[in-house]
Design goal:
The protein is mainly α and 102 residues long. It is built from 2 helices and no strands. It has one domain.
Length: 102
């Protein structure tokens, strides 16, 4: 089992680092979806009914987890978009400069 990495300190990240974080989350989500689809294809190739039933049960759990991941990533992306909008407003009003975040 892969251990989660240390949580990034998003309050002290630059714009480029925040963009990279969002991109990495999207890539991980897509990679997880691909593994799920590969597992579904593998199930179709299994001939043993008992093994297929066990695989189906596992795939159902995986699909529920993928749905939850998609919801979390979508919420994160929405919050990120809100943060960027607030940052643009602060720049326009002169309350924020990019040098403060580096």
């Amino acid at each position: 089992m892969v251990e989660p990495t240390e949580r990034p300190d998003i309050l002290n990240m630059t714009q480029a680092q925040l963009d990279e974080l969002v991109t990495n989350l999207q890539h991980k989500r897509l990679a997880t979806r691909k593994r799920y689809e590969e597992a579904q294809a593998a199930k179709q190739r299994v001939r043993d009914d008992k093994a297929r039933a066990q695989m189906e049960t596992c795939l159902i759990r995986m699909n529920k987890e993928l749905i939850a991941i998609d919801k979390k990533v979508a919420k994160f992306e929405k919050d990120y978009a809100t943060l960027m909008q607030l940052k643009r407003i602060a720049v326009i009003e002169g309350e924020y400069s990019e040098s403060e975040s580096t």
